[in-house]
Amino acid sequence: MRGPSGKRDAHTGVGVGASWRSAASRAAWFLCLWLVLAGASLDDIPAATIAVATATWTSLRLLEPGTSRRSPRAILRLALLFLYQSIVAGVDVARRALDPGLPLRPGFVAYPTRLPRGLRRNVFATLTSLLPGTVPAGEEEAQLLYHCLDVDQPVIAELDQEEAALARALYND
Amino acid sequence: MTEFLTVAVGFILAMLALGLLSILRGPGDADRVMATQLIGTGGIATLLLLGTAASIPAAIDVALTLALLATFTSIAFVKKGLSRFAADGTASTEDE
Amino acid sequence: MSLARDVMTIAAVSAGAFFFLAGTVGLLRFPDTLTRLHALTKADNLGLGLVVLGLLPQAASLRDGLKLVGIWLLGLLAGATVSQLIARAARHGQLNR
């Protein structure tokens, strides 16, 4: 079940101890996922071992262990903010759809982000796609383009707040 | 409880059918990818409700598989379509 | 006890069905692809979340409950990822490239 290029260590900048620790914690998460999906049974041990090992190896290849400090409390706050906003977003769309007057002022808004291009910006775009009334629709240099249901909403301020919460939770370096 | 859940299944299926009809008349490819998303969320909700109403635990696993497949289908479809456009940088350069 | 659980199920599943209704009405009424995308991803994801919330009290075991929550999280992640990909494709389509 190994990939074509073998198991050469892909991440050279990170210390060996840190990468072992993140491998162990990811393996523990995958094991929990296996137990939830397949249940605990003695007969499953070989399959579970192969699945957890393959998943851990794949995840380490696709997403190298990060170096920035993560604060559990800020992550929890980000998760709650995300949940709250996805509820507000659903209510907002429902209100507009069911309103006889169809109150829409659709358009694009450009948001100048401070996050570097790549993984961080993609995570931010994914998080903000569940904000009320906005869907990210592409990027142009240092700007993310958002399609909005109502361009009069304070979209930029909300995005700013979300970016700060994300930076506090995951990218505090 | 079973009656209520069955009614809910019927209602969500009707919404799913109406949504699919409206997507069918949509002009672009993007509208058609949205149909996959709609079947994804609506289908998962229906399967979960049905599984509980008729006590078929395996329906939950079917819903999980549907969630995975719908996601990857949409991503593959959009990526293929997007690779025609050069403007979005990294994602599309290998096709040029 | 079982009555309280049933009430919670009925309330949450009804609310979920309402958001599926709103999503479909949005699909029918909103004028273009991008606004319809809002209706589809936001309302339907909330509908799915409420249906899952409503089924949690009926789950046979803790493992079934966790599985339900896992399906909802997967759906949420899928909606968030796919919606921006579709939006990009739709925007390029609008520019007629």
* Multimerization state: heterotrimer
- Report the radius of gyration of chain C as a whole number of Å: 17 Å
Q: Structurally, how many domains make up the residues of chain C?
A: 1
- Rg of chain A: 21 Å
The computed structural class of chain A is: mainly alpha
Annotation, overall tally of beta strands of chain A: 3
SSE series of chain A? HHHEHEEH
How much β-strand is present in the residues of chain C? under 5%
Counting H and I runs of at least 4 residues, what is the number of helices of chain C? 3
Largest interface (C-beta under 8 Å): B-C, 48 and 48 residues
> Which ranges of chain A are low-confidence, i.e. pLDDT below 50, for 5 or more consecutive residues?
1-13
Question: Count of helices of chain A?
Answer: 5
Strand content of chain A: 5-15%
Q: What order do the helices and strands of chain C follow?
A: HHH
The overall pLDDT of chain C, averaged over residues, is: 86
Share of residues in helices of chain A: 40-55%
pLDDT average of chain A, as an integer? 81
InterPro entries (chain A): Cation_antiport_E
Organism (chain A): Bradyrhizobium niftali
GO cellular component, one term (chain A): plasma membrane
GO molecular function (chain A): monoatomic cation transmembrane transporter activity
Description of the molecule:
Chain A: Belongs to the CPA3 antiporters (TC 2.A.63) subunit E family. Chain A: It is found in: Cell membrane. Chain A: One of its GO terms (molecular function) is monoatomic cation transmembrane transporter activity. The complex is a heterotrimer of chains A (173), B (96) and C (97). Chain A folds into 2 domains: 16-62, no CATH class; 72-169, no CATH class. Chain A contains 5 helices and 3 strands; from the N terminus they run H-H-H-E-H-E-E-H. Chain A has helices at 16-38, 45-62, 72-98, 119-128, 155-169, and strands at residues 107-112, 134-140, 143-148. The longest helix of chain A has 27 residues, at 72-98. Chain A is globular and about 60 Å long. The radius of gyration of chain B is 17 Å and the shape is flat. Chain B has helices at 2-24, 29-53, 58-82. Chain B has one domain. The radius of gyration of chain C is 17 Å and the shape is elongated. Chain C has one domain (2-94). By secondary structure, chain C is mainly alpha-helical. Chains in contact: A-C, B-C. Chains B and C meet through helix 1, helix 2 and helix 3 of B and helix 1, helix 2 and helix 3 of C.
